[in-house]
Structure formats: C-alpha cells, structure tokens
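I'd like us to work through together how a protein chain folds, taking it slowly. We need material for that, and I hope you will provide a protein of your own picking. Go ahead whenever you are ready, and we will take it from there:
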Amino acid sequence: MKKQTHFITSTYFISLIKSWLQGTKTRPEIISETADVLHLSSINQTDVTYLLTTVAREMNEDFYTDIITHINYDADTVPTRKGLIHHLSALLAEEITLKEFMEWAHWYSLDDDQLSAGIFEDFTVEYFCLDFLSANDDLLSPYMCRRALEILEYPGASPTQQKVALTLLPDHELDDFKDFLSQLTLQHPSLTLIDRYLMKKFGMDHESFPYMQELTTQGAGTILKKVQLIST
C-alpha cells in the first residue's frame, strides 16, 4: 500500500466520494474498485463518505482540506437520475441490499425549516429521495422498485408525469385516485374541489397537473394506464 500511496491525490478521493453521493457507484463497487489501493475492509459498517475522508486525512492532511472544500460547496454532490437508476438496478439485481439502497437514497436530508424545491438538478429524483421514500419506507417492495425504475426510464415522460406515476405506486394511493375518478364522473365537482384534491395528492393545481384534459375527455381505464406510465 505504501508503494502505491504516492500515486493517490485528493482528486482520487473526491471522485470516489462524489460517485457515491451522486449514486453512480454503490458501496460494494467502491470496495471492489479500491481493494488494491485502500483496503477498505471496514466500509461495510461505516458511512462511506466518513470512511473515505478519514482514510484520506490519514494519508495527507491537505487531502482533507481539499475534500471538504469540494464536497461542501459543489452543487454536483446530490443524488442524480443516473445514480438513482444505477442503485435501483443494483438493488433489483441483488448486488446491494435494501438497507444499502435506503442508506444511499436517504443520505441527503433536510432541516425542518428547509425547503426542498430546487436543491437537486432533477425534480423527479428530488421528489423520490426526499418525499416518496419517507412516506413509503415500510411499503417499499421489489415490485415498487421495478416500477420506479420503469417510470424513471419511461421515454418522453416529463418530470411532473413521473411524479404523478411515483405518487400512485402504493396501492392505497392508486385506490384513492380511482375513487376520485369515479366521483369526477358521477358528480362533476367544481374546479376548486378538483384543485383541492390535486394539490393534496400531487402538490399540483389544474394548471400544472399534466393530465387535466384527459380527466374530462377520457374514461377512467384509459387515464389510469396513462398516469401510471404503463406501456400498452
């Protein structure tokens, strides 16, 4: 290890940490890729960022300063779409555990008085990591993870369409939406009542909800497949 240490720079550690934070490398992948250089045997029990930072500091105090500067202030250290897709794919392939997936997906958290909007470059990933998982931790299943992956990769879908589809993944949310569609057909509620429902369910009003025209022109069966982003 000592013979190889002089080839390592702070950039090496910064790259590893960013790949973990963004999600493009899983914990097992980092263990494998650094095995010949860092021998991170304890990474299975320790926070990845903390461990890599600690090892870097032991090698060179200046490494630590460089890492803190880049990791604290660069905007590209939040989960990304590519990273979320990579982690979901690894989970479904049983390359990581659900615990490892949740550890990564939950690493970025908000203070009680902090707004989530605009923190991530990708609105759908922001919603999934900060809102969807928190509301559905105990419901997450292989089926939901597979559907989430399909939604993220659905061709041509907008971020708002993906948010609607993710929101409706849990059975109780889909059943509630079906009830709403039935009431819409039978009672023709006012726009105010529709807005109230859409805002509570999706955080959208009739102007931002991406299927407003379909609500009034298509049958429940047709719109259900469309809002779930299920290929026909």
User: Anything to note?
Assistant: The mean pLDDT is 86.
